[in-house]
Amino acid sequence: MKKYLVIGNPIEHSLSPKLHNHWLRENNIDAIYEKKLVNKTDLKDIINQVREGKIAGINVTVPFKKEVISHLDKLTLDAEATQSVNTILLAKERNNMIIGHNTDIGGFENAIKDTKYNFVGKKILILGAGGVTPSIIFALYKMKVSSVTLSNRTKWKAEHLKSLYNKTKVVDWGEIPEFDMVINTTSVGLKNDEKLDLDFSKIGKGKFFYDVIYNPQETNFLKTGKDLGNKTENGKKMFIYQAAEAFKIWHGILPKINESLLN
Ligand code: ATR
Questions:
Q1: 160 lines ligand 1 (CB under 6 A)
Q2: What is the mean pLDDT of residues 100-110?
Q3: How far is CA 33 from CA 21, 56, 74, in A?
């Protein structure tokens, strides 16, 4: 039986196995998908297991999306541009090369398409500069936003991302420039009581608050946005769509999208 993995650290809360195993069963594919806690020093060995055919494919999550790149043979253009890989496979038709893909970009794009929000000409503020942030910036520029401003508690990480996308502006943590949409890509809110130390009280109404976090469903960040009279959306659909795109890459089938899969 073919084996697929999601690797990360921490990994215990990952819902990827639930989604992928459901789709494997639904499509009568004889394979299993498991989660595995790994350390940086395990990456080489685990990628070698893909090379040897012991593992058929890997999803990569925090904090290894960039780290894993040095162990791969080739990246897709999107993975190259974002320096971020979340899906790995052995391409038999390409001389057994190990290829790194990025399906977070498509995941975000498809999730936003579903909200019917029109990004063209919009000013976007991104909070955080972690593993998923480059993919979101890349997707936003593809969707023709007018500007992207980055704010991260540790400013040099935002400056570093700016070197990948030089149109991007960076502001100090705590500074809230005018925006149409604000996206939380920090890990603040994963624990129910956590709250960003930012003041949104002067931003006005009619904005869009998006949180990459989907568990809990409504973070304090989204609650604040809603209480101030703004549109909100969590990261659940992005998560499902990135998984669906990975499934398509591995199995050649686009699985059925059903939000209740994660309830
Ligand atoms: P990684 O940095 O390993 O990629 P991540 O979970 O993808 O991990 O990213 C964590 C993000 O949440 C970072 O942008 C982090 O900010 P720092 O770069 O300053 O660490 C941000 N973050 C975590 N805790 C935070 C807090 N209490 N306040 C503000 N930002 C926080």
A1: no
A2: 98
A3: 6, 10, 23
